[in-house]
């Protein structure tokens, strides 16, 4: 079993099921005792801003804000640098606890021993 799970989510409200699956898998891995890192890329970058997870709705899914908060409490959430810049997201606007980092940091994280990576 992997000691750490890195989940990269590239979709947002445009593909709600894939988006919710990424957050759900990350949150459930935490409850199983696995270290978790969630990366927000592409349109998922918007979820680094206050209120965006709260606006997300998908029937029969846990609230995205609740999943985000669980991940922040027990794991890490990182916003892709280039994705933030493309969308005009300033670091000062990002939810406290979410970091901003680039591709080199992602590659370093997924190449570590004991890491399993998933992309949504």
Explain the overall architecture.
The protein has 120 residues and is an alpha/beta fold. It has a single domain (4-119), classed as Hypothetical Protein Ychn, Chain: A (3-Layer(aba) Sandwich), CATH 3.40.1260. It has 5 helices and 5 strands; from the N terminus they run βαβααβαβαβ. It has helices at residues 16-31, 52-55, 64-74, 81-86, 103-110; strands at residues 4-9, 35-40, 76-80, 98-101, 115-119. The chain has a 5-stranded parallel sheet with strand order 4-3-2-1-5. β3, α4 and β4 (98-101) form a beta-alpha-beta unit. α1 packs parallel to α3. The protein is globular, with a radius of gyration of 13 Å. The model has no long low-confidence stretch (mean pLDDT 96).
- In DSSP terms, counting alpha (H) and pi (I) runs of 4 or more, how many helices? 5
Write down the CATH topology.
Hypothetical Protein Ychn, Chain: A
Order of helices and strands: EHEHHEHEHE
Looking at this structure, what is the CATH superfamily?
Answer: DsrEFH-like
How many distinct domains? 1
Termini, distance in Å? 20 Å
The main β sheet shows up as: 5 strands, parallel
Helical percentage = 25-40%
CATH architecture, by name, is: 3-Layer(aba) Sandwich
The mean pLDDT is 96
Q: Class by helix and strand content?
A: alpha/beta
Strand order of the largest sheet: 4-3-2-1-5
């Amino acid at each position: 079993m992997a000691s750490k799970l890195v989940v990269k989510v590239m979709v947002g409200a445009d593909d709600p099921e894939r988006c919710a699956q990424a957050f759900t898998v990350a949150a459930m891995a935490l409850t199983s005792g696995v270290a978790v890192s969630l990366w927000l890329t592409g349109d998922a970058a918007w979820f680094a801003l206050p209120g965006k997870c709260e606006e997300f709705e998908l029937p029969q899914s846990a609230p995205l804000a609740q999943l985000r908060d669980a991940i922040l409490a027990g794991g890490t959430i990182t916003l892709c640098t280039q994705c933030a810049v493309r969308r005009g997201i300033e670091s000062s606007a990002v939810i406290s606890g979410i970091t901003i980092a680039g591709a080199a940091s992602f590659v370093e994280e997924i190449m570590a021993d004991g890491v399993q990576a998933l992309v949504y």
